[in-house]
């Protein structure tokens, strides 16, 4: 019997079963990206993100297919955690677009088109898509669904094609990413997506669908160690050589006002503005489009925006003049230093940092950070968490320090949808976050601060010490369960059964000829005497090195280390 459509009730059931299937298998997904430090959290991030979407669906009173899909997308957007959660939110944002104007039934052709729309949206959101990731699994599965829909009206056949192609694409990810093949695993984000799609299929058929899985107990497995290279969403600008002089921001209420002549189309709108400058960012929903662009023609940007609706926000900064003022000392703000700030007045800048550990929090506050989001490894904040911190900061400009590459996309997504101008300095570690603050200048612009703070990241080498949670071998380093691992930047360089030995060996690996200062931040499982013993040993070995010991009280990592 042919199943030609999916009803509203069946669609809600698909979402619930897909989400529950991911939830039940989240720990397995986590096991695929163990580094082997205990911070593999792709499954957790995807599960929390999708759960947020499910909650929005449950709470919506609307009963059309499109409204339910929009609620799912909205919940995913606000709950997105980690790179995998953000990409998942973009997949279902596009999926929702593909179901626009669909009220009571999803046909086979519409279902396939919705999956393809999700892929198109997600690929646009990622600056440098890399094959062998969740994006590949999404793309190849959508292509299979579209192919089947060309000759079949059966929604189950389309969904089965999507699920089977997702499994096939996932199985092939080790052939596309060498790091996966080295340790014998598939991409964790793709695995999470497969569990969702499998739940969709099981909901439609009422039958269990087998999924190929690895046995993590018998397989050496690792985190996709360099995933931060796959999703680089930086929009930094070199203020020393400004090609486009006006930082221009507009917000348009679509369809409103007396100047409307054109119907809004995202691709047409974005492509036109792309020809007017660089650092373009366009975020839109059904009611509002927000634009950030560096251009020589801010008036043209505004005039173009008015073709689609009413301008409800305009901001233009002359970046050349601002840059000249910084160089000449004008506008230094010294005349304002002695004026007391009004409690209700917004500060010019607020810096938001993601960090774990009371001591680390205090360290950031002492260097000028105004808002701390408790999190990091194993605790990635959501887009909503970051937006709430932006609101609490009560400032005219926001700088976000994620201090973890897996928070980059959520932070960039929050900055993009924030009503307050915000940027992300893509700090990969606590050490980089602390170093970046040396580049902050209260009298500079947001873009200038981003550039200066990013430049500071090259002046510090970051390291950390934590326990291995299983036997494995990575890049020639043999690691046993329980060993103390020394991680420098993104790579495991040291493994030793003794904590002090592992830490000293790691610091020695980090030092360069011009190194002068080592900062040793010790965690909640380390005593002050243990940390001081390591500091004394390093200073005895290197007369030119000064070691500063700080009680960070951080979890997971016994030591966070920086060498400058």
Descriptive tags:
564 residues, alpha+beta, six-stranded mixed beta sheet, 20 helices, 18 strands, globular
Provide a descriptive summary of the structure in words.
This protein is α+β, with helices and mostly antiparallel strands. It has 20 helices and 18 strands. The strands form five sheets. Strands 15-14-11-18-16-17 form a six-stranded mixed sheet. α1 runs antiparallel to α3, α6 packs parallel to α8 and α8 packs antiparallel against α10. The longest helix is centred in the first third of the chain and has 22 residues.
- Give the tally of β-strands: 18
The end-to-end span amounts to 69 Å
Alpha-beta classification: alpha+beta
Question: Over the alpha carbons, how many angstroms does the gyration radius reach?
Answer: 25 Å
Average pLDDT metric: 83
What percent of residues are in strands?
15-25%
Number of helices: 20
Strand order of the largest sheet: 15-14-11-18-16-17
What is the molecular shape?
globular
Helix content: 40-55%
Q: Pick out the low-confidence regions.
A: 34-39, 215-240, 326-343
Q: Biggest sheet, open or closed, and with what strands and sense?
A: 6 strands, mixed
């Amino acid at each position: 019997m042919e199943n030609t459509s999916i009803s509203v009730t069946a669609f809600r059931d698909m979402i619930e079963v897909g989400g529950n299937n991911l939830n039940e298998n989240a720990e397995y997904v986590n096991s695929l990206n163990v580094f082997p430090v205990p911070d593999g959290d792709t499954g957790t991030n995807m599960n929390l993100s999708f759960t947020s979407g499910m909650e929005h669906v449950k709470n919506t009173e609307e009963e059309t297919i499109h409204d339910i899909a929009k609620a799912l997308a909205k919940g995913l957007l606000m709950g997105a955690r980690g790179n995998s959660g953000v990409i998942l939110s973009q997949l279902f944002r596009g999926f929702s677009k593909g179901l626009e104007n669909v009220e009571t039934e999803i046909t086979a052709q519409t279902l396939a088109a919705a999956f393809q729309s999700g892929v198109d949206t997600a690929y646009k959101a990622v600056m440098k898509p890399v094959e062998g990731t969740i994006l590949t699994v999404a793309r190849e599965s959508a292509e299979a669904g579209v192919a089947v829909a060309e000759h079949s009206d059966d929604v189950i056949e389309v969904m089965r094609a999507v699920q089977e192609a997702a499994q096939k694409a996932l199985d092939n990810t080790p052939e596309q990413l060498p790091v996966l093949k080295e340790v014998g695993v598939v991409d964790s984000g793709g695995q999470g997506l497969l569990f969702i799609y499998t739940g969709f299929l099981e909901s439609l058929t009422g039958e269990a669908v087998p999924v190929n899985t690895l046995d993590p107990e018998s397989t050496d497995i690792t985190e996709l160690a360099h995933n931060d290279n796959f999703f680089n969403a930086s929009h930094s600008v070199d203020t020393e050589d400004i090609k486009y002089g006006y930082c221009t921001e507009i917000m348009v209420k679509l369809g409103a006002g007396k100047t409307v002549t054109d119907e809004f189309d995202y691709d047409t709108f974005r492509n036109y503005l792309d020809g007017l400058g660089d650092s373009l960012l366009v975020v839109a929903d059904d009611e509002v489009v927000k634009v950030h662009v560096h251009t020589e023609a801010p008036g043209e940007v505004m005039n173009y925006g008015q073709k689609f609706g009413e301008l409800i926000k305009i901001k233009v900064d002359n970046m050349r003049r601002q840059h000249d003022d910084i160089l000449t000392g004008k506008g230094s703000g010294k005349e304002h230093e002695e004026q007391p700030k009004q409690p209700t007045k917004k500060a010019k800048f607020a810096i938001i940092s993601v960090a774990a550990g009371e001591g680390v929090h205090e360290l950031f506050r002492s260097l000028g950070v105004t808002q701390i989001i408790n999190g990091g490894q194993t605790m990635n904040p959501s887009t909503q968490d970051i937006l709430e911190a932006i609101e609490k900061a009560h400032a005219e400009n926001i700088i976000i320090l994620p201090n973890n590459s897996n928070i980059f996309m959520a932070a960039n997504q929050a900055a993009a949808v924030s009503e307050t101008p915000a940027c992300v300095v893509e700090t990969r570690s606590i050490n980089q976050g602390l170093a970046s603050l040396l580049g902050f200048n209260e009298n500079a612009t947001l873009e200038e601060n981003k550039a200066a703070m990013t430049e500071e990241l090259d002046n510090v080498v970051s390291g950390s010490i934590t326990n291995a949670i299983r036997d494995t071998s990575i890049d020639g380093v043999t690691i046993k369960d329980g060993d103390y691992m020394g991680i420098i930047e993104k790579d495991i360089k040291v493994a030793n059964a003794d904590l002090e030995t592992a830490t000293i060996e790691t610091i020695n690996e980090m030092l360069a000829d011009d190194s002068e200062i080592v900062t040793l931040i010790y965690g909640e499982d380390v005593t002050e005497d243990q940390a001081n013993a390591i500091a004394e040993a390093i200073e005895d070995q290197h007369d030119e090195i000064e070691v500063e010991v700080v009680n960070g009280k951080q979890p997971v990592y016994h030591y966070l280390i920086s060498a400058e």
